[in-house]
Design goal:
The protein has about 250 residues and is mainly beta. Helix content is about 10%, strand content about 40%. Residues about 10-25 have low confidence and may be disordered.
Length: about 250
């Protein structure tokens, strides 16, 4: 074999190996495919996910929907702290063909979660909501106006949610109560009337701790066009979202 070709193959092998190790052990890129986390995350956002913050399970060693074959890890290893209420996490959803989902943690193990007229109740107490103006977006190829609210969780974390329908009129506005099992979490999308999440037990349900791959940290790139729309690239980049922290 040509020595130069062999050298190039070795160099590419090192690059690919480094990429795989970093993606499995430290940080991984994810692209947002749907609008369930609007306005926090938009379709076309590219995220960096921290894979070591909660320690490692078998699902941590996952690139796309491919799991690196390893011996089964029963308990997360090198875990410093568990996921917290309000964290935005990427997880493996076994109920939807092992797809990767991204949602916000609302309920912790042992919590009772109930939605009454669209308002989240945690352990019998409604969480605080403050009106925060309006939000416009394209949904199903139609222009829509949402109402925007600041939701304040019991631990003080704040985030923005949007509602297309009035409270109590959404399809999932009156569901529960749900009692979160041990080592599981209850997750929801910030786009409350357009999110398939833990409120839908047959499609998502409670998320096992070991299915959580990591915590979304920041947006490193964002574009509103398809990857093949090359001529639109310069005009579709959302510069204001680049390096934006995810809260």
């Amino acid at each position: 074999m040509n020595k130069k070709l062999l050298k190039n193959l070795k160099e590419w092998g090192c690059v690919i190996s480094f990429f795989v190790i970093v993606s499995c052990m430290a940080f991984q890129m994810f692209k947002i495919p749907s609008g369930s986390m609007i306005p926090t995350l938009l379709v076309g956002d590219f995220l960096i996910v921290n894979k070591f913050c909660y320690g490692y399970s078998n699902n941590s060693f996952r690139i796309g929907t491919f799991n690196i074959p390893l011996p089964k890890i029963e308990k997360r290893i090198f875990a410093n702290k568990p996921p917290e209420r309000g964290d935005v996490v990427v997880f493996r959803n076994e109920k939807d063909n092992d797809q990767n989902y991204i949602k916000r943690i609302i309920g912790l193990p042992g919590d009772t979660i109930e939605l009454i007229k669209g308002i989240v109740h945690i352990n019998g107490k409604s969480i605080e909501l403050k009106e925060d103006g309006e939000y416009s977006a394209i949904e199903d190829n139609n222009y829509a106006i949402y109402k925007k609210y600041k939701e304040i969780l019991p631990n003080g974390k704040e985030h923005i949610i949007i509602k297309r329908f009035e409270f109590g009129e959404g399809r999932l506005d009156n569901v529960g109560p749900f009692v979160v099992p041990e080592e599981h979490y209850f997750v929801m999308g910030d786009n409350r009337d357009n999110s398939q999440d833990s409120r839908v037990m047959e499609k998502v349900g409670y998320v096992p701790l070991n299915n959580i791959m990591g915590r979304a940290e920041f947006i490193f790139f964002s574009s509103g066009c398809k990857i093949y729309e090359i001529l639109s690239w310069p005009f579709s980049i959302r510069y204001e979202r680049i390096l934006k922290a995810i809260e």
